[in-house]
Amino acid sequence: MRRVWTVPELKTLTEIYTSGRPLAANLHLFGGRSIETIRAKARAIGLVHQSLPTKIRELMAPKDDAAAVPRTAAEVAELLSAEKRSVRDVLSAMVLRETAHIVEWRGSYHEIVYVFGPGENAPKPLSATPAAYRKRLIEKRRKAAGMPAGMSDTEVDEMYRAGDNWWPRADPVVVSSIDAMVRSKWSNHA
After folding, report:
1. Is the pTM of this model over 0.90?
2. Closest listed residue to residue 138, CA positions, set 156, 160, 161
3. Nearest to 83, CA basis, from 147, 16, 21
4. Confidence of residue 186 (pLDDT cuts 50, 70, 90)
5. Closest to 54 measured CA to CA, from 24, 17, 27, 14
C-alpha cells in the first residue's frame, strides 16, 4: 500500500533540496521512506538537488568582469545557510584541486580567506612562541592594573616602592565601615 505524502514531508523535502544538505543524511525525517522514493518524489514535483560544492562554486566564482570576492568559510556558510565545518571542508578540497586559493590568514586564530580560481596560497603565519605569549599576557595585566605599557620590570619595582604618592588614597568612609565590621565580628567572638 502506498503512503500519501503529507504537507510537512513535502516542505521538508523542499527545504533539503534548496539548502543543499545531503539527502542521505536526512532520511530519518521521512518516516521510513527509501532514498529512491524520496528522489522520485522530488523529481515529480520539479525539485533539483544542488550540492554544497556547486552552491559554493556559484557564490565564489567571479561574475562577468568583476574580480572574485575573497571570503572566509564562516561568511560563505552564513550566505548559504550551511554548516561552517562542511563549507570549510569543501573549500579545503577546492584548494587541493587548485580551483580556489588562500589569499590571507586573518586574526589571531588564523582564519583562512579563500578566493575562487587558481593562484598561489598565502603562507600560514607562525604561531606565537610561549615567550611572546607570556610577554603579551604581562602587558595585558599591566594595562588592566593601570600601568603604562612598555615599562621595564625595574621601573615597575620603583613605582611600587615609591610609597604613598603612587597608590590612590583610601576612602575614609570605606575604611571606617570595614573597621566597624571587623570590630563587630571580633567583639561577638570574645
Report:
1. no
2. 156
3. 21
4. low
5. 17
